[in-house]
Design goal:
44% helix; single chain
């Protein structure tokens, strides 16, 4: 059975827990996501630990954002870990995105458009002219023009971004919450079924899976639900 297009966010308190969660969910999902906190705490070893013997795809979500030369060096440094996906911030500009793409040619560079934690009021405060869907579309077009082959956007913008960039670009959507789950610190959310219907390719789901009593069973149930609706 084909694993579901879900990236489980392994926001674990320690390496052992992250590896255990990964082992539980990998029969059911295509990808596991390692974020900034886990990577900074344990370094490159975390990648092998969560990959285990399964060969599951690893999404390294570092959201690199610096001058192009620095981002190129960082992307090259982590590319030896063979992550399937590496994130950079679209707001770093086209030269920075292009530098990451060139430095890690065997890794899919995903440009983060607008964080799902940001509301319309937040965008106004930081000076990013919006509304959010306009800002996301602008950053999406900029990123694809610079060579990014994936984009990270909230479920609220995924349909508009898909129509803007076409079918060849991988759209990754955080802020995905199964019906009835708490939104926590996400401001722009949707259910997995709605995000897929709107054109998402990979759904990032963390606490609704890892915070459940049985992450493996929860991942299996979500995967089955997606198969019924696609």
């Amino acid at each position: 059975m084909t694993p579901a297009p879900i990236a489980v966010a392994l926001d674990a308190p320690d390496l052992e827990t992250a590896a255990r969660w990964a082992a539980m969910v990998t029969p059911h999902v295509s990808t596991v996501k390692v974020g900034l906190e886990l990577y900074l705490r344990y370094g490159p070893d975390v990648i092998d630990s969560v990959r285990g013997g399964s060969g599951v795809r690893v999404f390294l979500d570092l959201k690199l954002h610096d001058i192009p030369n620095t981002v190129a060096g960082a992307a090259k440094a982590v590319s030896r870990l063979r992550p399937a996906i590496l994130t950079v911030h679209a707001a770093g500009g086209p030269a920075m995105i292009q530098a990451a793409v060139q430095a890690a040619p065997h890794t899919k560079i995903a440009a983060v458009t607008v964080l799902t934690s940001l509301s319309e009021a937040d965008l106004d405060r930081i000076g990013l002219s919006g509304p959010a869907d306009d800002a996301v579309r602008r950053l999406a077009v900029l990123s694809v023009g610079a060579g990014a082959t994936a984009l990270v956007c909230s479920p609220h913008e995924v349909a508009a971004v898909r129509s803007e960039v076409g079918p060849a670009i991988t759209l990754i959507t955080p802020g995905v919450r199964p019906a009835g789950a708490e939104t926590q610190d996400q401001a722009r959310v949707a259910t997995p079924e709605q995000a897929m219907a709107d054109g998402a390719d990979l759904l990032v789901i963390g606490r609704p899976i890892t915070g459940s009593a049985d992450p493996g069973a929860t991942a299996a149930a979500l995967a089955a639900s997606l198969r019924r609706t696609t």
